[in-house]
Amino acid sequence: MKIDCDYILMDIEGTTSSISFVKDVLFPYFLLNIDDINKLSNIKEVKYAFGQVLRLVKQEENRDITTSEEVILQLKKWCEQDLKITPLKTLQGILWQKGYQNGELLGHVYDDVPVMLENWNLLGKKMGIFSSGSVNAQKLLFSHSVKGNLSTYFSNYFDTNIGSKRDSDTYSLITKKLALPSNRILFLSDVIEELAAADMAGMKAIQIRREGNLQSWPQSVSDFSEIILT
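^ thats the sequence. predicted structure below, dont judge the formating
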């Protein structure tokens, strides 16, 4: 499939990396080590994330949380439900950092990904990531991947702090931050709702079909090698 673009924005889970890696490796690691968060309470990002948890629970459940133990129980609940909640993603990234740095974790990427990242880089294309995982978690996955350090290929990282992945306004904001015409940006994802949102914002959009994911978008490929950039 030939596509004319200047910038490739890509999802992670189900696109560059296996969904099972997140669900079967990263989530269990977080749950196993979640009590370590209490030891990191002096870190600014941890304090802020805890505050976000308190506010969300009050807003959504009209319930007051008063202890760190209650916060951890709430985080466990959200993680087990695989909810895309920003403070959860922030704290997951902080705990995963320890796992990546001590060698307990290596980020999964499909075999075609590093090859095509190099090819697109040689063509002079800029690349970025937009994932529900925190920016910190994104950088860790690609800098400690099973294929080595791939983080140098990406000039931008975006997470849900900029907005929902299923909201077209989010992709318009990303377009402004990249200072490019929207039709010069290609978005790659396995999720139809994300592709539709990017398309509505004027981006080009291609569905990546991994691990039996059926075609549900007009422009669809099984892996990155089927995309020919011009």
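The chain has eight helices and eight strands.
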